[in-house]
Amino acid sequence: MKSLAEIDVRGRRVLVRVDFNVPLRNGEITDDTRIRAALPTIEQLREHGARIILVSHLGRPKGPDPSLSLRPVAARLAELTGADVAFASDVVGADAHARLEQLEPGGILLLENIRFEPGETKNDSGLAQALGELCDVYVNDAFGSAHRAHASTDGISHYVDELAAGLLLEREVAQLNAILTAPKRPLVAVLGGSKVSDKVGLIERFLELADKVLIGGAMCFPFFKVQGHAVGASICEEEGLEPARRALELGGSKLLLPTDLGIAERVAADAPRRDLDGVDVPAGWIGLDIGPRTSERYSDVIARAGTVFWNGPMGVFEFDAFARGTRAVAEAVARAPGTTVVGGGDSAAALTKFGLSASVTHLSTGGGATLELLEGRELPGVAALQARESVT
User: Which of 99, 169, 264, 333 gets the highest tally of CB atoms within 10 A of its CB?
Assistant: First the structure.
């Protein structure tokens, strides 16, 4: 991929695909992490005198939806950059073109939600061409959307002469590829969450690459059920049983499961916690966290790692009584002397909750894109940049 530094952007129209898919409550942004993640690319373009056009999606609208307008994002971006941020009420229509005509070097224009356009998710060539006509240079900095072959992540690449990766996307790809190709050993993967079926590819990939794979969260229960343990009323998806069985056969001694659990009779913030010495969950009880012995064991493995990848909480960390295992893992990852990479919204939220976001080497913004890249799958948004590079 061509990097941003390789392109002369002074005075030119640069369309940047960003990921401003931020959470909103009553029209207010509740977490601006994704906006902040795009700031290095935006600031570099401003410093070099580019005329910056930003395009992003927000939510999954079926058409224009005022509750999913990017207008609040424009206001927040103006606060973060200290710059005037123009906002277009459409994407490739009259307002976008009129505001682009007024855009000065160093100026910023944010287009309305790209998913208000029905052709976006269909990778419509007409929309892709119209986007291409807005700019001289296309930059993809939306790693979180790079696994989607949409008009603004893939199609546009056929209608713009110069393409580059933004600083965020470039860093994401470099950091994640390093885990696959040149990790410092031992490589430890910590995988949690609720469903084995969501992470079959990731589990099997790390069973090939990693020295240890630590399993936590509700996804441990299909493993336990396959082994003949009682799971009580815990979440235990049937679709996860066969993948769990296969992982147990493949993993051998490198696959570690909890040896004790935190359980309760209901899923609630005020539910009394009981620490179970073992993993056989009594009838009517629910496993909601890994136990203290498992937390200590996992922390010890992480402390000796050269590289750690963590995706998924160890339990229902939103409730303090059942956040102990996730907190222990988060603190172990934050203290680890090696390279530490964290991916996934819940893991990022846990780090934020415990005040540890700044204590890891790399906090991925990718979600599904992170998992697909690590599974070895091609990301259309990255492949589009690489394909043009190979042609030129």
Answer: 169
Name 103's Cβ contacts closer than 8 Å, sequence gap at least 6: 13, 51, 52, 53, 86, 109
| CB 253 within 8 Å of CB 209 | no
From the candidates 195, 246, 273, 293, which is the catalytic residue? 195
Distances (CA, A) of 232 to 96, 285, 334: 57, 5, 33
**Looking at this protein, which amino acid is placed at residue 364?**
S
Grouping H, G, I as helix, E, B as strand and the rest as coil, residue 369 is helix
Question: For residue range 354-372, what is the model confidence (pLDDT) as tens digits?
Answer: 999 999 999 998 888 999 9
The predicted pLDDT at position 392 comes to 47
Give the residue among 244, 187, 246 at the shortest CA–CA distance from 218: 244
Instruction: Give 182's Cβ-side CA count (13 Å radius).
Output: 3
pTM, full prediction: 0.90
Distance CA 174, CA 165 (A): 11
| pLDDT tens, residue by residue, 73-91 | 999 999 999 999 999 999 9
Q: Is the pLDDT of residue 244 over 80?
A: yes
- Residue 345 annotated to the active site: yes
Which residues lie across from 29 on neighbouring strands?
A: 24
Tokens of 213: 């794979």
8 Å CB contact between 134 and 96: yes
Q: What are phi and psi of 194, to 5 degrees?
A: -100, -25
Active site (annotated) includes residue 195 = yes
- Active-site hit among 17, 34, 225, 327: 34
**Distance in angstroms (rounded) separating the CA atoms of residues 269 and 319:** 5
Q: pLDDT by residue (tens digit) across 216-235?
A: 999 999 999 999 999 999 99
CA distance 129 to 189: 42
Max Cα-Cα span within the chain? 68
